[in-house]
């Protein structure tokens, strides 16, 4: 076994609560719009995105357990300065994008629960206060914060489970959708939806977060058996967490697919007028077009068809989801900044940094546009998470495949090839397919340059990953470390 340094003792109160790993992030539910295929046809995407997420999470955890360092720290040691800074920027963009989604989801929940009395821009501003509240709980005591997050996860499971029972989707169709991959007549829109599902399930910054969380456990890394045991227990914990997340997402997608698929605006409008939430009827025009459903309109339609209780329970579930993941981005951002830049900020400073970038564009859209634009921005952010995924997956594959670093725990080449090929193929296909849809030279030139830079950087990461897998002929100069690893000094550190 490699003699990696043991983790230093960390005060218990400073550790992030394990509940941060549980449940989906807010406003990132992989909900199908009514104009796309019914949800059961895309449930298999949800299942395999969850499996892929488990594989990525397992690799991140294994890296932290075996080396005693997180993914950001390893990137700092191995990548040259320019690629390292670019990689940090990509992950920061993912964190800010995720935080924007949390803000959007929480603002929509406040609007639903207040019957529209709290405007969307007001809900966005309230998220500043709730973030500071969680920082206070974190300082007050880990047990209190952990218990509160456990309560929120329970609320999510119960509320979305309630909606699932009320709507009663066909169980046979749900099972077919999960285990039989098919999507007849699917095209570009369905690909965008599938990418949104992947982006909603696998968050790039969470891969960095998981590699950091395991550092807090004291493990005797000189004993292979101790490392194997730690990896096994962490894997069990990850399986339980992602199973809960899968169930919650399944509830949401099945509810949307059963209740809202091919509903027409005039039918929903008529139903809302005669319901206990008739004040929401005006958001649906009286035409025969298929209604376009998002997490806001979804809650309203639930209220129109199944009563006000269903609407408020939906709002509570969205609010709980938003609050349960508010701190995830804060912890991930803190670890990423410390790893890549060796720069230590307090959590208070870190959350102000992230949320200041997230609040401004979100509050502007909420104030000067309507909820359709806000939820549309959320859908684009989901796709952004999927596009940024290679910048987390490729580094973790690179370093968990580097034998001098991982020794007996290094990856097999087949695993690397499958995951790399799948993630990169989906994203590159989307990039190539998206460009022709833009009309006008003023769009093609800047976006073409941006996409070329994206493909070039992904190619660079694949190159270093290939070196780590034994392609020595690709190694040149500085990048030889991706083949031979870094030497340890006499004290056992890099």
TrEMBL record:
<dbReference type="InterPro" id="IPR001046">
    <property type="entry name" value="NRAMP_fam"/>
</dbReference>
<feature type="transmembrane region" description="Helical">
    <location>
        <begin position="86"/>
        <end position="112"/>
    </location>
</feature>
<feature type="transmembrane region" description="Helical">
    <location>
        <begin position="42"/>
        <end position="65"/>
    </location>
</feature>
<feature type="transmembrane region" description="Helical">
    <location>
        <begin position="444"/>
        <end position="463"/>
    </location>
</feature>
<feature type="transmembrane region" description="Helical">
    <location>
        <begin position="118"/>
        <end position="137"/>
    </location>
</feature>
<feature type="transmembrane region" description="Helical">
    <location>
        <begin position="230"/>
        <end position="256"/>
    </location>
</feature>
<keyword id="KW-1133">Transmembrane helix</keyword>
<keyword id="KW-0812">Transmembrane</keyword>
<keyword id="KW-0408">Iron</keyword>
<dbReference type="GO" id="GO:0005765">
    <property type="term" value="C:lysosomal membrane"/>
</dbReference>
<comment type="similarity">
    <text>Belongs to the NRAMP family.</text>
</comment>
<feature type="transmembrane region" description="Helical">
    <location>
        <begin position="414"/>
        <end position="432"/>
    </location>
</feature>
<keyword id="KW-0325">Glycoprotein</keyword>
<comment type="function">
    <text>Macrophage-specific antiporter that fluxes metal ions in either direction against a proton gradient. Localized to late endosomal lysosomal membranes, delivers bivalent cations from the cytosol into these acidic compartments where they may directly affect antimicrobial activity. Involved in iron metabolism and host natural resistance to infection with intracellular parasites.</text>
</comment>
<keyword id="KW-0458">Lysosome</keyword>
<dbReference type="GO" id="GO:0005886">
    <property type="term" value="C:plasma membrane"/>
</dbReference>
<dbReference type="GO" id="GO:0005384">
    <property type="term" value="F:manganese ion transmembrane transporter activity"/>
</dbReference>
<dbReference type="GO" id="GO:0031902">
    <property type="term" value="C:late endosome membrane"/>
</dbReference>
<feature type="transmembrane region" description="Helical">
    <location>
        <begin position="351"/>
        <end position="368"/>
    </location>
</feature>
<keyword id="KW-0472">Membrane</keyword>
<feature type="transmembrane region" description="Helical">
    <location>
        <begin position="149"/>
        <end position="167"/>
    </location>
</feature>
<dbReference type="GO" id="GO:0005381">
    <property type="term" value="F:iron ion transmembrane transporter activity"/>
</dbReference>
<feature type="transmembrane region" description="Helical">
    <location>
        <begin position="191"/>
        <end position="209"/>
    </location>
</feature>
<feature type="transmembrane region" description="Helical">
    <location>
        <begin position="295"/>
        <end position="321"/>
    </location>
</feature>
<dbReference type="Pfam" id="PF01566">
    <property type="entry name" value="Nramp"/>
</dbReference>
<dbReference type="GO" id="GO:0030670">
    <property type="term" value="C:phagocytic vesicle membrane"/>
</dbReference>
<feature type="transmembrane region" description="Helical">
    <location>
        <begin position="380"/>
        <end position="402"/>
    </location>
</feature>
<dbReference type="GO" id="GO:0015086">
    <property type="term" value="F:cadmium ion transmembrane transporter activity"/>
</dbReference>
<keyword id="KW-0967">Endosome</keyword>
<keyword id="KW-0410">Iron transport</keyword>
<protein>
    <recommendedName>
        <fullName>Natural resistance-associated macrophage protein 1</fullName>
    </recommendedName>
</protein>
<keyword id="KW-0813">Transport</keyword>
<dbReference type="GO" id="GO:0051139">
    <property type="term" value="F:metal cation:proton antiporter activity"/>
</dbReference>
<keyword id="KW-0406">Ion transport</keyword>
């Amino acid at each position: 076994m490699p003699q990696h340094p043991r983790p230093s003792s960390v005060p218990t109160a400073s550790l992030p609560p394990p509940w941060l790993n549980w449940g989906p992030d807010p406003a990132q539910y992989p909900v199908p719009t009514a104009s796309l295929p019914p949800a059961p046809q895309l449930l298999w995407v949800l299942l395999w995105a969850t499996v892929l997420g488990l594989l990525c999470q397992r690799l991140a955890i294994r890296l932290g357990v075996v080396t005693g360092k997180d993914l950001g720290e390893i990137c700092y040691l191995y990548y040259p300065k320019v690629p390292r800074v670019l990689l940090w920027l990509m992950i920061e963009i993912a964190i800010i994008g995720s935080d924007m989604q949390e803000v959007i989801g929480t603002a929509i929940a406040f609007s639903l629960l207040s019957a529209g009395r709290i405007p969307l821009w007001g809900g966005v501003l309230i998220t500043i206060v709730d973030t500071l509240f969680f920082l206070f709980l974190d300082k007050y005591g880990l047990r209190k914060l952990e218990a509160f997050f456990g309560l929120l996860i329970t609320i999510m499971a119960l509320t979305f489970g309630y909606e699932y029972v009320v709507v009663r989707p066909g169980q046979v169709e749900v099972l077919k959708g999960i285990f039989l991959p098919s999507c007849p007549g699917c095209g570009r829109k369905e690909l965008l939806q599938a990418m949104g599902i992947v982006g909603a399930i696998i968050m790039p910054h969470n891969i960095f977060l998981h590699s950091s969380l395991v550092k807090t456990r004291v493990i005797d890394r000189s004993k292979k058996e101790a490392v194997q045991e730690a990896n096994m227990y962490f894997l069990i914990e990850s399986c339980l967490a992602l199973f809960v997340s899968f169930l919650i997402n399944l509830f949401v997608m099945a509810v949307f697919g059963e209740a809202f698929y091919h509903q027409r605006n005039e039918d929903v409008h008529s139903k809302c007028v005669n319901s206990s939430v008739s004040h929401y009827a005006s958001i649906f025009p009286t035409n025969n077009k298929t209604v376009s459903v998002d997490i806001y309109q979804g809650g309203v339609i639930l209220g129109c068809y199944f009563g006000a209780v269903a609407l408020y329970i939906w709002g509570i579930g969205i609010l709980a989801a938003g609050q349960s993941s508010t701190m995830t981005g804060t912890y991930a951002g803190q670890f990423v900044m410390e790893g890549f830049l060796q720069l230590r900020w307090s959590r208070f400073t870190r959350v102000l940094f992230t949320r200041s970038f997230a609040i401004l564009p979100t509050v502007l859209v909420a104030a000067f546009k309507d909820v359709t634009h806000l939820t549309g921005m959320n859908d684009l952010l989901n796709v952004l998470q999927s596009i940024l995924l290679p910048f987390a997956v490729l580094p973790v594959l690179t370093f968990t495949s580097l034998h001098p670093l991982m020794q007996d725990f290094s990856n097999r080449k087949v695993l690397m090839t499958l995951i790399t090929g799948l993630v990169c193929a989906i994203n590159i296909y989307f990039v190539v397919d998206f460009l022709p849809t833009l009309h006008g030279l003023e769009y093609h030139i800047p976006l073409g340059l941006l996409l070329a830079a994206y493909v070039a950087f992904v190619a660079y990461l694949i190159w270093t990953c290939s070196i780590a897998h034994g392609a020595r002929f690709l190694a040149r100069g500085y990048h030889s470390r991706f083949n031979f690893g870094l030497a340890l000094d006499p004290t056992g550190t890099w």
